[in-house]
Amino acid sequence: MMLRQSGTPWYPTMSLLGGPTVRRWRTIDLAQSLFYGLYNDNARTSTGAKNSDNVSSISQGTDDIEPHHIQNKPIKILLLGAGGSGKSTFLKQLQVLKDEPFTSNDIETFRQLIFNNLIGGIGDLSSIVKENNIKVSNEVRWHFETIQDSGIIDLGDGEPFPIFLREHFKGLWEDPSMQQAWKYGKNTALSENLPYFFSSIDRLFERSYVPNEQDIMRYNVRTTGISETMFNIRGYPAAVVDVGGQRSERRKWIFCLENVTCVVFSVNLNGYDQHLFEDNNTNEMEEALRLWELIIGGGWFSDTLIILLLNKFDLFKKKVQTSDIRAFFPDFRGPTRDAHAGYEYFERRFAKIALKGGRVDEKAVHIFATSATDTNRVRGLMPALEE
């Protein structure tokens, strides 16, 4: 049964795998589950979940319990998933929700990366135009050539966005041929943030521009290597480890698998009709399913709390209106253009793998539908989590 919280957008109910079936709780925030799972060993019982109808009862009884994980080892949260799944955005969201302020250097880096996203987006659109033989006007060619000939790829510290490029960016994005290219690019690993940033060109090119919270959530950069961010959770140090998700980066995962308290595995729901950035012949969702099976069956996390994020549900909900899931997953039997049915189909696919791998009862997996860029959905819960 689907439950909807009053006054909030529809999200599927959160699932906790336990026993032979998928048990459902009312939708609660992914960050709440993360910290709840770390702090309350009673969260997973022999039946797989406490019977609970609301958020308050889920949170009840955690204050008097000394965390098992903190008693035995430091908290280490490992973020895993394929490239483009939203892991790094989830990390930024945690920083905001945990009131860990970004430094002035962080914000300046974000500002420069947003400009990189604009330049990279134009380059990607240009490639799509060529690959698909999309006819463009002389004006569009002039816009492309001006941006390319400027030779500006990066900004220096404090350097504003080059004002003379503003009208070229606007002219390109507003042209019908670029909108056609964008539609073609939806089935590739083209950055999903382009409409957001290109619709804000005038604001971004102001000399006084400073990225706001949504800008920070929306910019995209492919993670390479291993990064570790420290948080303070109820006075205890916690390390959140983010590793690159592209295939070339996964060989580094082996260095992060020890002493993990919690694994957060992120999946791009919106990628069901897209191919990988690094492989045009591999479906992004199929890759995520294979990775999930490896994580569940590999033996590294047999006693580790695992949270599965079926991410970018907001984009998925829009995409299914024009892109039929059955065209890419023929065994999908739900109604066309039904985001709820589509979500449940993919949830079952991942749940089946988890159950096959023995993730039942006290080893249950928490599953959420979420949008990692939507901090407003979860901000109100953080004070209660810290009490």
Name a few traits of the molecule.
2 domains; 8-stranded mixed beta sheet; GI Alpha 1, domain 2-like; disordered N terminus; alpha/beta; Rossmann fold; globular; 387 residues
Task: Describe the 3D structure.
With 387 residues, the protein is of the alpha/beta class. It folds into 2 domains: 14-84 and 226-386, P-loop containing nucleotide triphosphate hydrolases (Rossmann fold, 3-Layer(aba) Sandwich), CATH 3.40.50.300; 104-218, Orthogonal Bundle (GI Alpha 1, domain 2-like). It is built from 16 helices and 8 strands. The chain has an 8-stranded mixed sheet with strand order 2-1-8-7-6-3-5-4, with helices on both faces. α12 (284-297) links the parallel β6 and β7 (305-311). α5 packs across α8, α6 (138-150) runs antiparallel to α7 (166-174) and α12 (284-297) packs parallel to α14 (339-356). The longest helix has 28 residues, at 104-131. Residues 1-10, 18-71 and 380-387 have low confidence and may be disordered. Keywords: GTP-binding, Magnesium, Metal-binding, Nucleotide-binding, Transducer. One of its GO terms (cellular component) is cytoplasm. This is Guanine nucleotide binding protein, alpha subunit.
What is the subunit organization of this protein? single chain
**Number of DSSP helical runs:** 16
What would the principal axes of the Cα set say about the shape?
A: globular
Looking at the overall shape, the CATH architecture of the largest domain is 3-Layer(aba) Sandwich
* CATH T-level topology of the largest domain: Rossmann fold
Q: Can you give the helix content as a percent range?
A: 25-40%
- Going by helix content, strand content and strand pairing, the class is alpha/beta
In CATH terms, the superfamily of the largest domain is P-loop containing nucleotide triphosphate hydrolases
Low-confidence stretches: 1-10, 18-71, 380-387
**What amount of the residues lies in strands?**
5-15%
User: What strand order characterises the main sheet?
Assistant: 2-1-8-7-6-3-5-4
